[in-house]
Structure formats: structure tokens, C-alpha cells
Amino acid sequence: MNTSLFRNWWVILIQGILMIALSILIFDNPGAVLATLALWFGVLILVSGLYGVIAYFATSKQDREGVMLLYSIIMLLIGFLMISNMLVSMIAITIAFGSMVSIVGLILISGSWSGRKDWPMWWLIALLGVATLVVGIYSMIDVFAGAAGISTFIGLSVLFAGFGLIFFAFLKRKVVKTVKNAVSGA
User: Fold this and answer.
1) 109 Cβ contact partners less than 8 Å away, ≥ 6 residues apart
2) CA–CA separation, 8 vs 92, rounded Å?
3) At how many degrees (to 10) do helices 143-185 and 86-114 cross?
4) Which residues contact 97 (CB under 8 A, 6 or more apart)?
5) Beta carbons of 115 and 122 less than 8 angstroms apart
6) How is residue 59 annotated by DSSP?
7) What is the Cα–Cα distance from 81 to 51, expressed in whole angstroms?
8) How would DSSP label each residue in 156-179?
9) CA–CA dist 154, 37 (Å, integer)
10) For the chain, which residues make up each domain, given as ranges?
């Protein structure tokens, strides 16, 4: 009865606590979160382009495609530019984030308007859509607002994951006790 399923529930508990602490850091440092995100996107794009160039030359000559080499070189250059000019990368990320949030707002507005005959409270969804659209547009206009929005989104994700891990740790502890009692009583 020495399998990993029955060991170390407290490790998951500690991970959950650390995730909650990390979420607090994320909420408190939106600019750093955005800069880190921009750096990692740049690194990923750079590595992707580098991998494509290496793969092109590693492939036999009859299987090589010039378009893939061109695409890989472009990716390599974009990744390098993103890393070398972090402010532009951060602005691009906030514009992309704001665009996605704005699209969600428009979808909510459109869906509520379409369902206004079927839903008596359709206007609540419309108001939520308008608020979401405003947040999205504001995130595209103001880099700091975009950074705060991205940081809040990531922070909430990490916070909920931390609570989930804590819940799972206690659930695992209870299941382990139940199984051990059932096995020892059998």
C-alpha cells in the first residue's frame, strides 16, 4: 500500500497555498506580469522560428519547402523584435487582449438583443456586454489598463487553481483515510 496515490497529500496543499500567494503577487504587479508575458511570447516565437530554420536544413533537399523557410525566418525576426522592444510587445499584447474582450462584449450584446423576446432579463446581459466592450476598448487605448486586465485575468486563474489544489488536497487526505480504514478493516 505504498503507492504514490496514498502519499503526500500535504504537497498538494502546499502547492495550493503557494498558488494563492503567487496570485497576490500577480494582482500587485500588473506591469511586471505584462512584461514577463511579452518576454515569454517573444522567446516562444523566436524559438519557434529557430526550430523551423533548423528543421528546414535538417530535412532532405527534395522535401524542403521554401515557404516554410521564409515563414520560419519571419517568426525568428518577429521573436527577436519582440524581445528587443518590450514596450511595443506589451502594447501589442494589450491591444490583442482588448480586442478579444471587446469581441466578447459584442457577442454578449448581440446575443442578448437576439434573445430579448425569450429572456425577460435580456437587458442584464446587454449591460454586461456594454461593460465588457468598454473594458476591452479601454484596454486597447491604455496600456496600463490592459496590463491590469491581463494581470487580473491571470491572477484569478492562479487564485482559483490554488483553491482547487487545497480542496483536492483535503479530498485526497479523506479518500486515503477511508481507503486505509477499509483495507485495514478487511
Assistant:
1) 126, 129, 130, 133
2) 43
3) 80
4) 139, 146, 149, 150
5) yes
6) S
7) 17
8) HHHHHHHHHHHHHHHHHHHHHHHH
9) 10
10) 19-181
Q: How far apart are CA 38 and CA 56, in angstroms?
A: 27
Q: Please state, in angstroms and rounded to a whole number, the distance separating the CA atoms of residues 141 and 98.
A: 8
**What cell does 143 get?**
496600456
Q: Which residues of the chain have pLDDT under 70?
A: 1-7, 186
Q: Please, where are the H alpha helices in the chain?
A: 9-28, 30-58, 66-84, 86-114, 122-141, 143-185
Query: Measured between alpha carbons, how far is 183 from 181 in angstroms, rounded to an integer?
Result: 5
Check if the beta carbon of residue 82 is closer than 8 Å to that of residue 38.
yes
At 61 the pLDDT is 86
Number of other CB atoms surrounding residue 40 within 10 Å:
12
CA dist., res. 50 & res. 78, Å (int): 11
pTM: 0.74
Specify the pLDDT at position 1: 47
In angstroms, the CA 102 to CA 152 distance is 16
Grid coordinates in use for 47?
Answer: 524559438
| Cβ density class 72-99: b for 16+ within 10 Å, e for less | beebbebbeebbeeeeebbbebbeebbe
